């Protein structure tokens, strides 16, 4: 069970990084984040 949860968390992290990485700086600014924050935001999304 723990392995499955870890894998799903990793997938969610990668998807978040990918989606945010495709956004322009302007779109990210509208969300209140910048390019340097992408990995931090993705880690926070997994922690939920």
Question: Any chance you could write out the topology, listing elements then pairs?
Answer:
Elements: H1 2-21, H2 25-31, H3 38-47
How would you sum up this structure, described in words?
The protein has helices spanning 2-21, 25-31, 38-47. The protein is an all-alpha fold and 48 residues long. The longest helix is centred in the first third of the chain and has 20 residues, at 2-21. The two termini are 18 Å apart.
Element-by-element helix/strand order = HHH
Globally, the shape reads: elongated
Structural class: mainly alpha
In round numbers, the mean pLDDT is 94
Low-confidence stretches: none
Total strands: the figure is 0
Number of DSSP helices?
3
Note the gap between the termini.
Answer: 18 Å
Q: What percent of residues adopt helix (DSSP H or I)?
A: over 70%
- What summary fits the major beta sheet? none
Question: What is the number of independent domains?
Answer: 1
Q: How much strand content do the residues show?
A: under 5%
What is the gyration radius calculated from CA atoms?
12 Å
Précis, in short:
Helix content is 77%, strand content 0%. It has helices at 2-21, 25-31, 38-47.
Features:
single chain, 48 residues, mainly alpha, 3 helices, 77% helix
């Amino acid at each position: 069970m723990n392995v499955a949860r870890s894998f799903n968390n990793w997938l969610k992290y990668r998807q978040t990084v990918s989606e945010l990485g495709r956004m322009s700086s302007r779109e990210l600014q509208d969300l209140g984040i910048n390019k340097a924050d992408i990995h931090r935001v993705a880690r926070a999304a997994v922690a939920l």
